[in-house]
Amino acid sequence: MKTSYNPNQSPRVIIIQKLYGNFFNDDSDLKFSKHRFKKFIKDVVLGTIERDDVINDELKNHLSDDLEIDNLDKVFQVIIKSAIFEFLYKPKISTKIIIKEYLDASNFFLEDSQTKYLNAILDKIARKIRNNDARV
Fold first, then answer.
1. CATH assignment of 11-25+37-129, given 3.30.559.10, 3.40.50.720, 1.10.940.10, 3.90.780.10?
2. Which of 19, 29, 102, 115 is 20 to 30 A away from residue 45, measured at CA?
């Protein structure tokens, strides 16, 4: 069951939509409408695109034993990549907040069982990237 979630209010939902369009629909039109968190949204979207190679290396380092990113649902791929960008380049945002907000946003796109799996993946990646401060 989907939650009553207003996607227009969540910066992470906008980030997921922009990145999905860019990575999978060849949508290079990255206009950012007025939003309270416009700078943050723009930083994460453009940073994730710019550092896609670095993010893919992180994925290979931390997930290659468990799963193949290309075999995951496309929304999963986008969420994981943008979360990794934040783990790496937004150190002032706690891991707990990053994971919680991506899970909240994922409820708009994914089923509950998929969200639980996503939670496990994000938690594992966060621990490896941020050296066990995932419970901060």
1. 1.10.940.10
2. 115
**96 falls in which pLDDT band (50, 70, 90)?**
very high
* pLDDT-based confidence at residue 86 (cuts at 50, 70, 90): very high
3-state SS record for the chain: CCCCCCCCCCHHHHHHHHHHHHHHCCCCCCCCCCCCCHHHHHHHHHHHHHCHHHHHHHHHHHHCCCCCHHHCCHHHHHHHHHHHHHHHHCCCCCHHHHHHHHHHHHCCCCCHHHHHHHHHHHHHHHHHHCCCCCCC
CA distance 48 to 125: 16
**Which pLDDT band, with edges at 50, 70 and 90, does 1 fall under?**
very low
Q: Could you give the CA distance from residue 115 to residue 105 in angstroms, rounded to a whole number? A: 10
Q: What is the pTM of this model?
A: 0.86
